[in-house]
Protein backbone atom coordinates (compact mmCIF):
# COMPACT_ATOMS: atom_id res chain seq x y z
CA UNK A 1 0.00 0.00 0.00
CA UNK A 2 1.42 3.38 -0.89
CA UNK A 3 1.80 6.00 1.79
CA UNK A 4 0.95 9.67 1.49
CA UNK A 5 3.01 12.51 2.91
CA UNK A 6 2.55 16.25 3.02
CA UNK A 7 5.35 17.12 0.63
CA UNK A 8 7.29 20.18 1.80
CA UNK A 9 8.58 20.72 -1.74
CA UNK A 10 5.25 20.49 -3.58
CA UNK A 11 3.28 21.97 -0.65
CA UNK A 12 0.57 19.32 -0.98
CA UNK A 13 -0.35 15.75 -0.09
CA UNK A 14 1.34 13.34 -2.46
CA UNK A 15 2.54 9.72 -2.63
CA UNK A 16 5.53 9.23 -0.36
CA UNK A 17 8.74 7.31 -0.96
CA UNK A 18 8.65 3.53 -0.58
CA UNK A 19 12.00 3.42 1.20
CA UNK A 20 14.32 5.73 3.09
CA UNK A 21 16.88 6.32 0.34
CA UNK A 22 19.14 8.58 2.37
CA UNK A 23 20.83 7.65 5.66
CA UNK A 24 20.46 9.19 9.10
CA UNK A 25 18.27 11.98 10.45
CA UNK A 26 18.19 13.80 7.12
CA UNK A 27 17.09 10.60 5.40
CA UNK A 28 14.24 10.25 7.88
CA UNK A 29 13.24 13.89 7.31
CA UNK A 30 13.21 13.30 3.53
CA UNK A 31 11.23 10.06 3.93
CA UNK A 32 8.63 11.77 6.15
CA UNK A 33 8.29 15.06 4.25
CA UNK A 34 9.19 14.58 0.59
CA UNK A 35 7.07 12.93 -2.11
CA UNK A 36 8.19 10.53 -4.82
CA UNK A 37 7.64 13.28 -7.39
CA UNK A 38 9.84 15.81 -5.55
CA UNK A 39 12.54 13.16 -4.95
CA UNK A 40 12.57 12.35 -8.68
CA UNK A 41 12.99 16.07 -9.48
CA UNK A 42 15.90 16.24 -7.03
CA UNK A 43 17.53 13.15 -8.52
CA UNK A 44 17.53 14.78 -11.96
CA UNK A 45 19.19 17.88 -10.48
CA UNK A 46 21.64 15.73 -8.55
CA UNK A 47 22.83 13.96 -11.71
CA UNK A 48 23.32 17.33 -13.43
CA UNK A 49 25.29 18.64 -10.44
CA UNK A 50 27.49 15.55 -10.22
CA UNK A 51 28.24 15.73 -13.94
CA UNK A 52 28.77 19.47 -14.15
CA UNK A 53 30.93 19.77 -11.06
CA UNK A 54 32.61 16.40 -11.67
CA UNK A 55 31.72 15.28 -8.16
CA UNK A 56 33.16 12.09 -6.74
CA UNK A 57 30.82 10.37 -4.28
CA UNK A 58 33.84 8.85 -2.51
CA UNK A 59 34.90 12.41 -1.59
CA UNK A 60 33.40 13.59 1.70
CA UNK A 61 33.50 17.27 0.67
CA UNK A 62 31.64 16.47 -2.55
CA UNK A 63 29.00 14.50 -0.65
CA UNK A 64 28.62 17.37 1.81
CA UNK A 65 28.11 19.85 -1.06
CA UNK A 66 25.49 17.60 -2.62
CA UNK A 67 23.70 17.20 0.70
CA UNK A 68 23.61 20.99 1.21
CA UNK A 69 22.18 21.42 -2.29
CA UNK A 70 19.58 18.71 -1.60
CA UNK A 71 18.39 20.40 1.61
CA UNK A 72 18.25 23.82 -0.09
CA UNK A 73 16.28 22.38 -3.03
CA UNK A 74 13.83 20.15 -1.16
CA UNK A 75 13.25 22.15 2.02
CA UNK A 76 14.22 25.78 1.34
CA UNK A 77 12.72 26.25 -2.11
CA UNK A 78 16.07 27.13 -3.71
CA UNK A 79 16.71 26.30 -7.34
CA UNK A 80 19.88 24.33 -8.00
CA UNK A 81 22.41 26.49 -9.83
CA UNK A 82 23.78 24.58 -12.79
CA UNK A 83 25.97 26.54 -15.17
CA UNK A 84 24.69 26.62 -18.70
CA UNK A 85 21.35 25.17 -17.67
CA UNK A 86 18.22 27.28 -17.72
CA UNK A 87 14.97 25.72 -16.47
CA UNK A 88 12.16 25.89 -19.00
CA UNK A 89 9.86 28.83 -18.32
TrEMBL record:
Pfam families: Iron_traffic
Keyword Iron: yes
Alphabetical UniProt keywords: Iron
NCBIfam families registered for this protein in UniProt: PRK05408.1
Protein name in the entry: Probable Fe(2+)-trafficking protein
Keyword Transit peptide (UniProt): no
InterPro entries: Fe_traffick_prot_YggX (IPR007457), Fe_traffick_prot_YggX_sf (IPR036766)
Lineage: superkingdom: Bacteria
Record organism: Alishewanella longhuensis
Family of this protein: Belongs to the Fe(2+)-trafficking protein family.
Matches recorded under Gene3D superfamilies: Fe(II) trafficking protein YggX (1.10.3880.10)
Role according to the record: Could be a mediator in iron transactions between iron acquisition and iron-requiring processes, such as synthesis and/or repair of Fe-S clusters in biosynthetic enzymes.
